[in-house]
């Protein structure tokens, strides 16, 4: 079987991880890249030995013979670019946040459905090794039905150095980082029926919120708290880890900063090391995220080969986008909101 021929649109800060991961997947060859910024285009093209380079995505899609396209631009271009891919009947991956509004996200999903085009949102947090270990632990039923959980991401990491645009938007932490935790909460505890949100801006040099606390009710009966902050000064800064605690009817679990998973059940307390694998191209502290990028991209290849829907399909991700929208609505109105679909 010949390799899948892929192309990337947007080769900025994060795309280097995606390109490294594609390079690790034998079944894939990235044959073309596109970026409006010629310097970045040439830097990445040289680094990954990709000869076909374009500044215009439409031109690339018209000229290249491709099996899929991977979009890693920032959110304002996502709708146009995914719709362009759908026009070319091209299976497409789109970075998170998938869209700037639920309205746009729905429109894009409808366009891809009508074109018969597979669409995966690059929502990689749920593909982290420690989070997959928690998912398996819940599935084993050792702690029973979860009734309470906390998903926490608190750091003072200077995220603006690598991604200056994060300081410039009216929205920041919920749309950029909270979105991952909201998706993880859905993944582990099921769909959300209500959400109440409080936001703060501690760093006055940025425009959006850098601290958010969300309280959610899940249809299956659990209550969860999602809290995230880029303004914290913890003793041990574990950027970019998601820490969690889950209490079930028969026990509890805790995912800690040393990647240990502690489980308390009727048998007592046990502890497992659920550290991510340090890929040869990975760099601490990003290695956990970088491994999840490889995991989700392998999943995409499997889905394309088998013709199955990705776990984070556009359709699935509508529920995560709905939570983001409901969180901002609740923060503004001071009310508890039912996420729309
Ligand atoms: N999943 C994660 O863990 C994670 C982490 C960081 C960033 N991200 C996401 O990745 C996406 C990209 O973020 P980034 O920090 O790499 O941004 P970036 O600004 O560094 O890179 C985006 C690149 O896209 C190019 N671009 C924009 N519009 C284009 C267009 N229409 N055609 C061609 N090129 C275009 C820009 O020139 C730029 O080089 C964002 O959606 C961000 O939220 C995800």
From TrEMBL:
Residues 5-121 form the Gfo/Idh/MocA-like oxidoreductase N-terminal domain. Residues 132-254 form the GFO/IDH/MocA-like oxidoreductase domain. InterPro entries: Gfo/Idh/MocA-like_OxRdtase_N, Gfo/Idh/MocA_oxidoreduct, GFO_IDH_MocA-like_dom, NAD(P)-bd_dom_sf. SUPFAM superfamilies: Glyceraldehyde-3-phosphate dehydrogenase-like, C-terminal domain (SSF55347), NAD(P)-binding Rossmann-fold domains (SSF51735). Pfam families: GFO_IDH_MocA, GFO_IDH_MocA_C3. Transmembrane segments: none annotated. It comes from the Bacteria. This is Gfo/Idh/MocA family oxidoreductase.
């Amino acid at each position: 079987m010949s390799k899948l021929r892929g192309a990337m649109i947007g080769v900025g800060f994060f795309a280097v991880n995606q390109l490294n991961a594609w390079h690790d997947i034998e079944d894939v060859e990235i044959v073309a890249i596109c970026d409006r910024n010629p310097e970045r285009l040439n830097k990445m093209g040289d680094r990954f030995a990709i000869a076909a380079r374009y500044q215009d995505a439409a031109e690339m899609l018209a000229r290249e013979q491709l099996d899929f396209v991977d979009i890693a631009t920032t959110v304002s271009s996502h709708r146009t670019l995914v719709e362009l891919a759908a026009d070319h009947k091209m299976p497409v991956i789109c970075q998170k946040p998938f869209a700037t509004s639920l309205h746009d996200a729905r429109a894009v999903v409808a366009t891809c459905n009508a074109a018969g085009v597979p669409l995966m949102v690059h929502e990689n947090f749920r593909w982290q090794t420690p989070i997959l270990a928690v998912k398996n632990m819940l599935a084993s039923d050792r702690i029973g039905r979860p009734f309470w959980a906390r998903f926490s991401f608190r750091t003072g990491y200077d995220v603006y150095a690598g991604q200056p645009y994060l300081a410039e938007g009216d929205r920041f932490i919920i749309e950029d980082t909270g979105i991952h935790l909201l998706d993880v909460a859905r993944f582990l505890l099921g769909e959300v029926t209500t959400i109440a949100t409080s936001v703060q801006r501690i760093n006055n040099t940025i425009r959006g919120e850098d601290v958010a606390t969300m309280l959610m009710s899940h249809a299956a009966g659990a209550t969860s708290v999602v809290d995230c902050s880029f303004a914290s000064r913890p003793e041990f800064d574990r950027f970019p880890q998601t820490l969690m605690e889950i209490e079930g009817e028969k026990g509890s679990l805790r995912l800690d900063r040393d990647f240990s998973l502690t489980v308390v059940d009727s048998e007592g307390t046990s502890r497992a090391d659920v550290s991510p694998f340090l890929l040869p191209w990975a760099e601490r502290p990003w290695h956990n995220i970088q491994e999840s990028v490889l995991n989700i991209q392998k999943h995409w290849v499997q889905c394309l080969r088998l013709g199955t829907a990705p776990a984070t399909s556009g359709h699935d991700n509508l529920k995560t986008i709905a939570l983001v929208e409901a969180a901002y609505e609740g923060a503004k109105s001071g009310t508890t909101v039912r996420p729309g679909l």
